[in-house]
Specification:
The protein is of the alpha+beta class. The protein has one domain: Sufe protein. Chain: A, CATH 3.90.1010. The relative contact order is 0.19.
Length: 138
């Protein structure tokens, strides 16, 4: 079976993170990724698009582009914006089928499961859940 784009994105992230010797550098890299997020539509910063379970404010929306799902998201916290960038890199612009078939092993591979605070981890899982729900409907 061919490796999916989402799977390749996870592998590339793991390789990028291997360049950093310590977690302070990895956190900085995540924050820098978050600074490159595309603008989020102001009119979608509403309760309807808000992700529940995140300590900081997170809004996420999606649209259909052909057979692919395109996600957009933003946060008022730098590290969370970086986590959003990681998720979008893996799951945005993929088909629902590809999203459904892509296990988020990057959490373990990058060490995020051990290095994020419980509240950040809960927020990350809430965002993953939203992506999963959208893909299951699509």
């Amino acid at each position: 079976m061919a490796t999916s784009g989402a799977e390749l994105a996870q592998q590339e992230l793991v390789e990028e993170f291997e360049m950093f010797d310590n977690w302070m550098d990895r956190y900085q890299y995540i924050i820098d990724m978050g600074k490159q997020l595309p603008d989020f539509p102001e009119e979608r910063r509403t309760e309807e698009y808000k992700i529940q379970g995140c300590q900081s404010n997170v809004w996420m929306c999606h649209e259909q582009a052909g057979d692919k799902l395109v996600f957009k998201a933003t946060s008022d916290a730098a590290i969370v914006s970086g986590l959003i960038a990681v998720l979008l890199r893996i799951y945005s612009e993929r088909t629902a089928e590809e999203i459904n078939q892509t296990e988020p092993h990057f959490l373990k591979d990058l060490g995020l499961d051990k290095h994020l605070s419980p509240t950040r981890s809960n927020g990350l899982h809430a965002m993953l859940e939203r992506i999963d729900q959208v893909a299951k409907q699509g």
